[in-house]
Amino acid sequence: MPTLKSAEIGLDAPILLTMGEPAGIGPEVAVAAYIELGGRVGRRPLLLVGDPEAFLGCGDVPRNALIATKARATRTPGLPDAANAAATVEAISLAVEMAMNGEAGAVATAPINKAVLMNTGFAFPGHTDFLAALTGAPRAVMMLASDELRVVPLTVHIPLAQVPGAIDIPGIIETAEITLAALKRDFSVDRPRLAVAGLNPHAGEDTVLGREEADIIAPAIAELRRRGQTVLGPLPSDTMFHAEARARYDAALCMYHDQALIPIKTLSFWEGVNVTLGLPIVRTSPDHGTGFDIAGKGLADPRSMIAAVRLAAKMADARAG
């Protein structure tokens, strides 16, 4: 599969942290990550992208660490305002543009509120689709990654009843190949191994409990193996996430959202990182939402954002090396 190109990433190109939804915990965890990491990861400085006013009151950050959007935002913790949507979107667009131009090594995005943005005409269901459009990527894939486990949901934010109809052989093959390529390029896994979960209990039990494994998942795996990839499955999802099973693969491709996210959030709730695969730039994000209920109360835990920044730097280094 061809790889989209962006400008070369220097070993000292900065990591950009976007503000996310101004009324949520995004500005708080971005500033907390900046302070905890001392403003850099290795040779890479950290820069905050957004309306500087949104970061005020979240901690001491030098002015030269801020990249200001032209659009303005007013931060009232816990009270989202559609008037902030332009600045929220611009922060993402500006960070992506800098990464595409080689002015940044990676982008770590703070959480946005999809409903607020879509009510103002934002045409994308979330970060992932917007990033794909900004970078020209034909398909973006969501991975949740931690030191314990990496998972990729084949289908993401759709009702569970629609999942069987959304699974097909080309989709499995394309998602698997994007994942395997990313494991090599961004995670420095020389010979990546991918485990593929079944859809049904016991992976269909020889079609007694469902035919998706035999008719769709197994043929896709066979084609991937024919192409020289190391792929396991279809595997029963109830036996593929314990420690001994995880030692057999480098990432797991799951058929639906909760099948992937429940195990990683159980194993690594505060250390899990959302990574977008298939882009010509490096993008990570904390694995949590806007936290309107705790915004401005000093309760936001920055560990996932810190993990997202550290992983972004590691991936940028892998691409630069």
Structure description:
The chain has helices at 26-36, 52-55, 85-100, 114-118, 127-135, 163-166, 169-185, 212-226, 243-246, 257-267, 303-320; strands at 15-18, 40-41, 44-50, 66-68, 106-109, 141-145, 150-153, 193-197, 230-235, 251-254, 273-277, 283-286. The relative contact order is 0.19. The mean pLDDT is 94. Strands 1, 2, 3, 4, 5, 6, 7, 8, 9, 10, 11 and 12 form a 12-stranded mixed sheet that branches. The chain is an alpha/beta fold and 321 residues long. It has 2 domains: 1-141 and 275-321, Isopropylmalate Dehydrogenase (3-Layer(aba) Sandwich), CATH 3.40.718; 148-267, Isopropylmalate Dehydrogenase (3-Layer(aba) Sandwich). α7 (169-185) crosses α8 (212-226). It is built from 11 helices and 12 strands. Helices cover 36% and strands 17% of the residues.
Brief rundown of the structure:
With 321 residues, the protein is α/β, with parallel strands linked by helices.
Features:
single chain, 321 residues, alpha/beta, Isopropylmalate Dehydrogenase, twelve-stranded mixed β-sheet, 12 strands, 36% helix, globular
Tell me the total number of β-strands.
12
Strand content: 15-25%
Task: Average the pLDDT over all residues and give the rounded result.
Answer: 94
Structurally, the number of domains stands at: 2
CATH class membership of the largest domain: Alpha Beta
Task: Report how far the terminal alpha carbons are from each other.
Answer: 21 Å
Secondary structure layout plus pairing:
Elements: E1 15-18, H1 26-36, E2 40-41, E3 44-50, H2 52-55, E4 66-68, H3 85-100, E5 106-109, H4 114-118, H5 127-135, E6 141-145, E7 150-153, H6 163-166, H7 169-185, E8 193-197, H8 212-226, E9 230-235, H9 243-246, E10 251-254, H10 257-267, E11 273-277, E12 283-286, H11 303-320
Parallel strand pairs: 1-3, 1-5, 3-4, 5-12, 7-10, 8-9, 8-10
Antiparallel strand pairs: 2-3, 6-7, 6-11, 11-12
